[in-house]
Amino acid sequence: MENRVVITGIGIYSCIGENLTDVLDSLQKGRSGIIYDDPRKEFGYRSCLTGFVKDPDLKPFLSRRERIGMHQPAMFAYMSTKEALENAQLDVDFLEKTETGIIFGNDSTAGAVIETIDKARARKDNTLIGSGDIFQNMNCTVNMNLSTIFKLKGINFTLAAACASGSHSIGMGYLLIKQGLQDRVICGGAQEINVYAMGSFDGLGAFSVRHDAPTKASRPFDRDRDGLVPSGGSATVIIESLESALKRNAPIYGEIIGYGFSSNGDHISNPNFDGQYRSLQMSLKQAGISPDKIDYVNAHATSTPVGDSTEAEAIFDVFGNKVPVSSTKSMTGHECWMAGASEIVYSLLMMQNDFVAPNINFENPDEFSAKINVVPEYKEHKIDCFLSNSFGFGGTNSSLIVKKFIK
Amino acid sequence: MERTEIISRTKDFLSREFEVDPSVIVPENNLQESLDLDSLDYVDLVVVIEENLGFKPTADDFKTIVTFEDFFNLVEQKLGA
């Protein structure tokens, strides 16, 4: 028998708020977290825009040994996971005595690696690099650090799938629990925002250069967009078998009922209608629901012309023009490795509070976005079931469907 | 470097690096226990000694160190005080 999989904890550390309360307020007010970042200009960035989150002070919470192997991805992930564990009513004593896994999405540690290499070049003696750098440098930095800090005893690996990493992490956790291999998995996605992390992406010319109006720069689906805005932070989604959640009387924020995925097998950076369409259809098939049961689509749309239009076509083809659609990236920018997880958190907050967050800066549709129901302003709307898309470089696609929990 | 300066400088950089109260860094105390060092921490101990005192202790040097007194003696010897 397959297990039902429910969400029992969520946490967020993002440019629109460093906790769930602040993020909810930003989502309701349509507040942007995008800034102009001066150091990027000096560094040679074509676009100096970014979503900004500060490095958290972890000294009050963690020992030196626990902190020394952490750079931005792990630091941000600690903050979102701490919040998620608290609202999931899980503590280290319980985690140590039970089997809880962690599958976190992360796809770079550029800042940490470059700082280490700078030290190595300066000292010309690797024994003077220090003991923490290796644990900051590896792509599995989030998993290594959090599994150690929170004494996790279950599955433990990092999932790297470009901008779909966070979404696939939840999908993989979902499959493991559904099959009865794990009771509980901490899923999520983390994204560094330091100046080293996005230079090569900036070099592709895909970022917005609307420097005179940073909060207007990320405008998915809008006719006058000129590129995406990178961003970062971390989101955590704790998922659990229904049996386990009920047994410990945990809060239940929603139930995951579908996970669709596909690979384009095509161009390394260009999106592909067929791949997105297959991912959407697979998630619906697995959920066993018809498209009209979806009350809200949280789009991947990043504010690039080709990406947004391809997704608009896929959404129109599957759902038609009725279902409300918004891209929260209009406020957050593109949270990349984190986005698939953060957008589940944002959508859950909407579902809990009966609204659709606005796709801010959507002023004029293009021929593709005109076909779908993009919501430009805060909208009261009851959501019983939503779908969240995530698509990444290399043609990796993921679609998750979450519904309100009904016993 | 005078021994008083060695002690003062050591108290400063070790307490900052390993986040211990400077008062635990006294000659009679056990260095490993006082700083709560595990095997990885010795890597960082080498780094901060090199940065703050200008020499790099060897694995054999550490075999001679139990107390801070031993450590101060090693520093005197290395710096030729």
Write a brief caption for the model:
The complex is a heterodimer of chains A (407) and B (81). Chain A has 407 residues and is α/β, with parallel strands linked by helices.
Your description of this structure?
- The complex is a heterodimer of chains A (407) and B (81).
- Chain A is of the alpha/beta class.
- Helix content of chain A is 36%, strand content 20%.
- Chain A has two domains: 5-247, Thiolase/Chalcone synthase (Peroxisomal Thiolase, Chain A, domain 1, 3-Layer(aba) Sandwich); 260-403, 3-Layer(aba) Sandwich (Peroxisomal Thiolase, Chain A, domain 1), CATH 3.40.47.
- Chain A has 16 helices and 15 strands.
- In chain A, a hairpin with a 3-residue loop joins strand 14 (385-392) and strand 15.
- In chain A, helix 4 packs across helix 8 and helix 13 packs parallel to helix 14 (305-319).
- In chain B, 65% of the residues lie in helices and 0% in strands.
- The mean pLDDT of chain B is 95.
- With 81 residues, chain B is mostly helical.
- Chain B contains five helices and no strands.
- Chain B has helices at 3-18, 31-35, 39-53, 59-63, 68-79.
- Chain A binds chain B through residues 63-65, 68, 125, 127-132, and chain B through 17-19, 38, 40-41, 43-44, 46-47, 50, 56.
Poorly predicted residue ranges of chain A: none
CATH architecture of chain B, by name, is Orthogonal Bundle
- Count of domains of chain A: 2
What is the C-level CATH assignment of the largest domain in chain A?
A: Alpha Beta
Give the CA-based shape of chain A: globular
Oligomer: heterodimer
Radius of gyration of chain A: 20 Å
Helical/strand content category of chain B: mainly alpha
Helix content of chain A: 25-40%
Name given to the CATH homologous superfamily of chain B = ACP-like
Of all chain pairs, the largest interface belongs to: A-B, 11 and 12 residues
Q: Name the beta content range of chain B.
A: under 5%
Largest sheet of chain A: 11 strands, mixed
> Could you tell me the number of beta strands of chain A?
15
Helix proportion range of chain B: 55-70%
* DSSP E strands of chain B, number: 0
Instruction: Give me the CATH superfamily of the largest domain in chain A.
Output: Thiolase/Chalcone synthase
Structural class of chain A: alpha/beta
